[in-house]
Amino acid sequence: MSPAGPVISAGVVEAAPAKINLALHVTGRREDGYHLLDSIVTFAEAGDRLTFAAASEDSLSLSGRFGAALAADPKGTGDNLVTKARDLLREALHHRGLDTLPVEITLEKNLPIASGIGGGSADAAATLRGLLRLWNADLPASELAAIALRLGADVPMCLASRPLRASGIGEAITPLPGMPSFAMVLANPLKAVSTPEVFRRLEKKDNPPISSPPPVADREAWVAWLSTLRNDLEAPARALLPEIGRVCDMLAESGGDLVRMSGSGATCFGLYGDYAAAEAAVSHLSRQQSRWYFQATRTIAGETS
């Protein structure tokens, strides 16, 4: 086997931005049980952070606010999405006759785990991006997308990490270059909600798709349009975990002009007029619930060029 390329000796740092479902409509269900979705997705500056460095053997270490919680999970440092992404990418490169050196991965876990903002999927996508950089390797976009989908329905969109519309089970992606950046607060009561149970409790699974987004990057137009949409998973998630309703009420009371749950929960978000207002909201909310997760952030704007 030939080496994939000269390894970057200083290592590689890759961000894993939080994935935010600004709206999510459930539009059907496939015969294999997977639900069909239509979702407006953006990504936040807040997120996890991964570091990759050449090593004598593969390893994964955890740090960050939620590193200990992930380590306590049976899959925390073993067969999780980061190591699966590493192994699938290495296998694909080996099939092309390219050798890959062992890698030391450090995951700084800043996002709550299993919280509806794509933490694990974002980490897997960042692993694919980071290791391709570290190993100085490349794969056709279609092959990389196939690896991402094998890792999970959310991983292809996290691989893009830009505003997009996702349909199918999440793998059909349309960029949304006209989406502006939003000042945002992420909030989570740090209690888990079961995604399978949320979907099981859905009363209607054949909702109409989402309408066309605004053609220009005007914040007020986008907020007005998003306000006409919804997250179909929010009602069953609220029934399972009443704290979600309380989180949304707190965000609205603190000045959020659009408040909604992301994904299957329990993370909720509020959009604010500017970043200073988001920071002030976090300060206020943290005084009310000091043990919950609150994070002021900005979302990544669409690429119009």
UniProtKB/TrEMBL annotation:
It is an enzyme of class 2 (transferase). Its EC number is 2.7.1.148. Residues 80-160 form the GHMP kinase N-terminal domain. Pathway: Isoprenoid biosynthesis; isopentenyl diphosphate biosynthesis via DXP pathway; isopentenyl diphosphate from 1-deoxy-D-xylulose 5-phosphate: step 3/6. The keyword Glycoprotein does not apply. It catalyses: 4-CDP-2-C-methyl-D-erythritol + ATP = 4-CDP-2-C-methyl-D-erythritol 2-phosphate + ADP + H(+). GO terms for molecular function: 4-(cytidine 5'-diphospho)-2-C-methyl-D-erythritol kinase activity. Residues 231-287 form the GHMP kinase C-terminal domain. The active site is at K19, D154. Catalyzes the phosphorylation of the position 2 hydroxy group of 4-diphosphocytidyl-2C-methyl-D-erythritol. This is 4-diphosphocytidyl-2-C-methyl-D-erythritol kinase. It comes from Ciceribacter thiooxidans. The lineage of its organism: Bacteria, Pseudomonadati, Pseudomonadota, Alphaproteobacteria, Hyphomicrobiales.
